[in-house]
Model the fold of this input.
Amino acid sequence: MATTAPALRPAATSYRSGLYEWLTTTDHKKIGILYVVNSLIFFFVGGLLALGVRVELAQPGLQFLSDENLYNELFTMHGTVMIFLFIIPILVGFGNYVVPLQIGAPDMAFPRINALSFWMLPLAGILLLSGFVTGGAAAAGWTSYSPLAQDRPLGSPGPGQDLWVTGLVLIGTSSILGSINFLVTIFKMRAPGLTLFRMPILVWTVLVTSVLVLMATPVLTSALVMLFIDRNYGGSFFDPANGGDAVLWQNVFWFYSHPAVYIMVLPAMGMISEILPVFARKPLFGYKAFVFATAGIGALGFSVWAHHMFTTGSVYLPFFSLMTFLIAVPTGVKMFNWIFTLWRGKLTFSTPLLFALGFLSMFLIGGINGAFSAAVPVDFALHDTYWVVAHLHYVLFGGSVFGVFAGIYYWFPKMTGRMLGEGLGKIQFVIMFIGFNLTFFPMHALGIAGMPRRIADYAGNAGWNDLNLAATIGGFLIAASILPFVWNVFVSLRSGKPAGDDPWEGNTLEWATSSPPPPYNFDHLPEIRSERPVFDLRHGRTKPAATLPDPGPVSQPTH
Amino acid sequence: MTDRALTATAHGPLDELAHDERGGISNPILGMLLFITSEVMFFAGLFAAYFASRAAIAPWPPTEFEHTLEPLGIVFPATVLLVISSVTCQIGVNAIRRDDRSGFIRAIGITLVLGIVFLVIQIYDYGLLYSHGLTLASGPYGTTYYTLTGFHGAHVFGGVIMLAVVLYRGMAGQFSARHHDAVEGTSIYWHFVDVVWIGLYLTLYWLR
Done:
């Protein structure tokens, strides 16, 4: 009566396959790993650029760099690389790897488009960085305001800015295709029984993020093509000298780039929400509230862009200030979700939990110092000072990057079949946590003391010397914290502790398959009756392999 | 349930594993609808720039270019052709839904020709405007006009390529009433391109 026994358990995916296999793969797991590795490489590049900035600012005067324009190139490319080639793609990479597993799907909906989305990224990165060898990279800041980004003296003459535009259009296209892929995958390919409100929180955050990407990124693309027309064909969109409107660029740019902030943090929030319940041995507190808060952030995210433009005098201040305060509410809801998940939990302080706690505490600071800038009078005083630099790094480094490392330590066993070393992981966390705060906490004081961002030099008697030196030392500590990480990955890949299918006693479906999972992920799925199917299975609430048809011989792909 | 599992015929691993059997919209069509959502936002950005430029300039169009706006000249026939092409495209879709392959090929062929004629008219119109001195570099009016119509034209070109592929595959007998997602997707895209043009035509030529 029962289905024929699933006789063929496919061999685990071999990650020692040849270069050709990696270049041509359409397996979402391999593409996910490619995303992560590619993003980490750009993380190191962006980090080196940031060290250049910090070394120059360690003391007043120009010591390290030959001229201010090179400094401008460094901070511009630092911001661009970190945002567009590190944080956004690495979160997409985790989504790529984990989402199909968590919804019990064999792959993404469009595997070949998935591969295309990935391969645009290294190409775009090479385009962006090739500015350094073709007469100067883009130097107008990652925001590229006009007229600074226009092709004229004292603006951005030369090919660097055009390469920047081209690279960003490619990355945007990659993101849009990726978001379509995620949305179709999540809506159409969930396992039987996995209703929307049984989806893991990471899947929810990827869903909302994909909607943001789908609706916001094309607007950036339109802004970029307009800038390109301005620069190369004598267009008059943004350059006041040609009858254009400089504030128009800011409006269109931030209409993308504010939602992009949520694109950069929502999936990290999702990863944290997967990790905290596992290491607190409790379900997530307030699942539905968390889902609605995520959707609320997504919706409100489209109505706050002009808070980057308070000082232009051309936006309606009360509205955008109010909306900015409002968007803190769903974020606050999530803080309580996380705190009450931990509350009276049976905590095990493994490295993923440490980084998740780093996320919680640092992102809280980033939320609080952001709320300051939401108040219009305060923002007029702090606009374009180091306060803003502190704020955005507490959100994007303290938030997203700590979340990313929590995710790396959490899913590395699934990806490779081996555990990362706990000792080295804790060393990395401690150095990174101290280095991060030493770098960015002083920037609050520097901002209040009036130090503007994006300057290569400052007066020795301005009173900014000590704090800048502290920030530079902190920057090198962050760089040092990467060394134990790289060593940890290297050692663990060779001789790490074998992970087994479910090393953390997880809740979600990726822990129901082998580590690393076979091609097409599952030969059978447990019954899904809640948002924690593997937990239910472990405690005998559901039967294994209740729902899935016999995979038969087809689960062994022949190509 | 067991019976279904045993009798389901497998074409590949993707068909069998974790497959959603509840039906509904097919993956490629949903993907196309989402892609069009992103295209709407792209054109929204361009339209925003158009209206911002227009609001900032006192006589719009600038007096020296006022004669370039002839809503009933050659642009109106082009508009009519594009609307007709949407109708013929839908006729083709309906035909293949009925498994009427020859009717499908005929209708898509006509749609393809109409799309190419639209592009030819647009290029001819650009030539006329250029001879009147309207270029990308002649201030916000010229920049927005050429950018908006140009990106629309690029989308028509993309649609023409898609129609050509669909026509070729149709003539090779690859579509049937059960299997024609590519036809449906191309048709949705072509309707979208048509709607954008109607919006552009009304905005650029009629809105005062």
Observations:
- Residues 1-22 of chain B have pLDDT under 50 and may be disordered.
